[in-house]
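Journal club prep — side note

Before the paper discussion, L.F. wants everyone to see what a predicted structure for a comparable chain looks like in token form. Sequence:
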Amino acid sequence: MEKKVYDTAVVGAGASGIMAAVTAARLGADTVLLEHMDQAAKKILATGNGKCNYTNASQGIEYYYCEEPGFVRTVLERFSYADTIRFFEQLGIRPVQKNGTCIYPESEQASSVKSALLAEVKRLHIPLYVSVGIRRIHKTGARLERELFCIETKEQTIYSRTCILATGGQAAKKTGSDGSGYLYARQLGHTVRQPFPALTALLADFQKWKLPAGVRIGCAAALDVDGKRAACETGELQITEYGISGIVVFQFSRIAAKALAEHRQVTVSLDFKPNMPKQALEHYILERFYSIYHKNKQIDEGMTGFLPDKLIAVIRSRAGINAQVRCGQCSRQQAQRLAAVLKDYRVKITGTKGFDHAQATAGGVCVREIDAARMESKKVPGLYFAGELVDVDAKCGGYHLQWAWSSGFAAGSAAAGAC
């Protein structure tokens, strides 16, 4: 019996893979979609705390990390924020802007985005195979040009004229990102930059003054690598038993992870009162403590309402002030020390929570080996890449999904045109 040959085979049915498959099929390519998990688009359900922040109204390469910034710009120009909004509106997903510039589905359910994407896969009659165990991907024959791709699975071999790798990275293995795509990329001759966790919590050595677990507080955080400022962010901090978490930490966690992998010294400076300059904070503390309402209280009680209760004793202790001191006895020097601790609470970072607790992966297939306009391999004609498998990552706020849509569209449209 003559073997079935697809125009395009997409490996990975996550956000970028589905976008690539839908795009290719809409352009007339006979497309097949392969997923090794028992269901497609599993990771989408976890995005935006289950609400799916699927893009961001504020776009720019400054929100993305890549060794070649122009690479990201080219891909985003192929399929922009406006294109994303239009694409999902066609599928019945109306946008709602929340938390600043973040875009969510009107239903505020990630399942709505997943269902809409899979409904389009069904409408286009794209075969979707789940629980596919891929053993090897290669090209037939000795020559790399004009040969078929062979995707060897446990049950069968699938043949295609073009192949799109959209397997994801290595973060959150339970959702399907197990790093298998790196193996396929290497088999096909590509360089893979060392993957490390991104958008993840950091392990900390609090030393003598341990911050209390369970506290959530808005603050500014500055990341220092070998004593030099590497990043500054503002947002919610979550203090945990093992270290620090929250969006303010997630935003620069990939920089910390990379530095730790290189055995460099990493510290975070926490500013618990980012809207008050240090001198103004000193003045406020003295004015507060000397008021008739607080002067006879002990300092911990005098700071109630100014800081989370659990945090007060740690700040006071680190400032070197005895718990028995009353507010009216607080000297200017003591107020200065309190302000200094509040504005620059240093934490030594010892590690990350790892890939299992990360929302994204930094590192991946080297972008210098990929044509940005087409997301096509410069080494293997007919091979394309999309999504997190590529060495591009981003900040929180829907940017990873925008990258998935943009790179998936570029790969899918180019693959269809090559058939």
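L.F.'s comment for the group: Residues 399-418 form the longest helix (20 residues). Keep this in mind when we get to the figures.
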